[in-house]
């Protein structure tokens, strides 16, 4: 199966609201955070799913990119 390529507009649809899964992009990779309790409702500490959170994760998060380990990868974010 071909890897899904998301535009920013397409990614925005996956915000964890109205039955949609919650996806976030980090460094061009799109992850499914729907299964994480911390992302219930598509929100986590002021961040909203359906966005590129590279800057937030790498510059502001105390966890860094280690929180991505084990998350399902659902595709790539187009430039």
Automatic annotation (TrEMBL):
InterPro entries per record: Cyt_B5-like_heme/steroid-bd, Cyt_B5-like_heme/steroid_sf
Annotated ranges, domain Cytochrome b5 heme-binding: 6-78
SMART domains: Cyt-b5
Name this protein carries in UniProt: Cytochrome b5 heme-binding domain-containing protein
Species annotation: Limosilactobacillus panis DSM 6035
């Amino acid at each position: 199966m071909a890897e899904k390529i998301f535009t920013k507009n397409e990614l925005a649809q996956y915000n964890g609201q109205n039955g949609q899964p919650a996806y976030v992009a980090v460094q061009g990779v799109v992850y499914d955070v729907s299964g994480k309790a911390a992302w219930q409702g598509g929100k986590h500490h002021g961040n909203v799913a359906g966005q590129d959170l590279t800057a937030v994760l790498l510059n502001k998060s105390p966890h860094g990119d280690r929180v991505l380990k084990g998350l399902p990868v659902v595709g790539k974010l187009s430039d």
